[in-house]
Design a protein that fits this description.
This protein is mainly β. It has no helices and 16 strands. It has a domain of 110 residues. The chain is globular. The N and C termini lie far apart (69 Å). The N terminus is likely disordered.
Length: 165
């Protein structure tokens, strides 16, 4: 076990800085990637997973995992079923699908950011699944003057209205 993280998952597998792999990688538990993978990096279905891609780590392919901590480069689609942490040196070139996103200054995404719909989101620890409903409002009379001010015939407030001298 290399170190523990928020969910209590430990990093039990390491692909070192000097390693370069071709082909898909499937894992469960925690994986730290300091090297290069040319292929997909996918967590085993139904098991908790966390992937840490360090500043020197590179993936050329799809990344699909529950919790991704990215400080390296991914060229391909990213799917984080629970949490995506984009650290300052993170680079993503492809579509990013996430349940929750934490993005540090300096991280770059060249592609679409797509939040997962509620049916795709796994329950996050200490996260209430209920989302307050947003009330709809009528914006058809957007040019109406603020209360207490009269408007002229074209619906605009008189010039200088609401401006203190």
């Amino acid at each position: 076990m290399l170190f523990s993280k928020k969910k209590g998952l430990s990093i039990d597998t390491l692909i070192g800085q000097g390693a370069s792999m071709e082909g898909d990688v499937t894992f469960s538990g925690g994986l730290r990637l300091d090297g290069r993978v040319r292929g997909n990096v996918v967590a085993a279905e139904g098991k908790p997973s966390m992937l840490v891609i360090s500043e020197k780590g590179v993936v050329e392919g799809e990344v699909r995992v529950d919790h991704l901590i990215l400080n390296g480069t991914v060229t391909g689609p990213v799917h984080a079923g629970e949490l995506l942490e984009l650290q300052p040196h993170a680079r993503v070139y492809g579509e990013v699908r996430y349940a929750a996103l934490e993005m540090h200054q300096g991280a770059i995404v060249e592609g679409r950011l797509v939040p997962l719909v509620q049916t795709e989101v796994k329950a996050l620890p200490n996260h209430a699944p209920s989302v307050p409903a947003v009330e709809a409002c009528d914006v058809t009379d957007a040019a109406a003057a603020p209360s207490g001010q009269e408007s002229d015939e074209d619906g605009k407030a008189p010039e200088g209205a609401g401006v203190a001298a």
